[in-house]
Here is the input.
Amino acid sequence: MVSSLEKVLQDVDISLSVLQVIAINSYDSIMITDATKDAKIIYANKAFKTLTGYDPAEVIGKTPRILQGAATDKTVIARLVDALKTDGRFEGKAINYKKNGTPFIMYWRVLPVKVGNKTRLWVAIQREGFEI
Ligand SMILES: Cc1cc2nc3c(=O)[nH]c(=O)nc-3n(C[C@H](O)[C@H](O)[C@H](O)COP(=O)(O)O)c2cc1C
Here is the structure.
């Protein structure tokens, strides 16, 4: 059965516009990385700046590892690395750091964007949480 979202996205021009509206205006931070081992950032929205203090332009080409620091739980990151090697889906929380060094609790999901069987990109949806 074709879902209502699939119906909305059937027209290529409309689907492009819908995705842009969602990514640009989301209250959640949205980050897209390439699907290389280093997962380099190729897009971050305005909410990413609100969340982390980094301007999207300054993180393009870097890895989301810039958000990590001394108190980041390495077992959570190991779980993420495992997920990227298998089905690419991850959900977790860990201490991350804003540009000014302030620690905060990052809640985030990572999802693969696949064409056929090949993962082309990873999309992360991120927000601040208040319980670790
Ligand atoms: C799409 C995506 C988003 C990520 N977002 C975060 C994040 O918000 N916080 C974080 O600590 N790590 C995040 N990571 C994990 C790091 O980029 C990296 O994969 C992890 O540190 C493991 O690599 P390393 O062992 O070289 O550090 C993200 C990874 C991907 C693929």
User: Anything to note?
Assistant: Helices lie at 4-8, 12-25, 46-52, 56-59, 74-85. Residues 31, 33, 39, 63-65, 67-68, 72, 77, 80-81, 84, 94, 96, 106, 108, 110, 122, 124, 126 surround flavin mononucleotide (CB under 6 Å).
